[in-house]
Amino acid sequence: NCLMCRPVIGMAVFTRRMNTWLLEDANDAVDLAGGNGKAPAVKLVTLGTDLHGVRLESHTQADDFAGSRLSILIPWQEDVVRVFSEDIAYTNRDACGPESPLRDPCYSWQRADSFTAVPGQDYDDLVLTGSGTQPPPDLDKAQAPPLHHARGKQQQPPMPPTAIPYTSVERLRFKDGKYVPLPDTDTSVPAH
Fold this sequence. Notes:
This protein has strands at about 10-15, 20-30, 40-50, 50-60, 65-75, 80-90, 110-115, 125-135, 150, 155, 165-175, 180.
């Protein structure tokens, strides 16, 4: 079980003309995706009228965290390219709470992806809707809290900070072979 082992992903696009399949676009190594030595989940997605791509969802799991990453691959200018790749979920499970060494709060967040048609545009916008909890902004992971002493008695350390709610809606538009955030969109992704 190799945490960071990820397969190299290649992709080819074929077109059927008459009774023959012709290679249109190809890339032997368009992405590294997957996790723990396993291939990502693969899904064909519609990105606009007669425009398609491949959605890769990679999962990584360790003893103290789990996360997911989304990549979108498309045929573009006689090649196959990765037009988007970002984290879409994370949890610090089993490495949090008052009994953990760093006493970090437990948190878990995710971002759901969808495509929305835009009048006059060939490619749909990518919308990421985030929800869950995130660590507080002042979380100092560099130090464990000290024990407090009062008149020779050991007191319990203060409770660790609590996770705070996380919500966001990020909208990205296809431009020059990439999905890029629109101005004034929420691009926040919790730290981890």
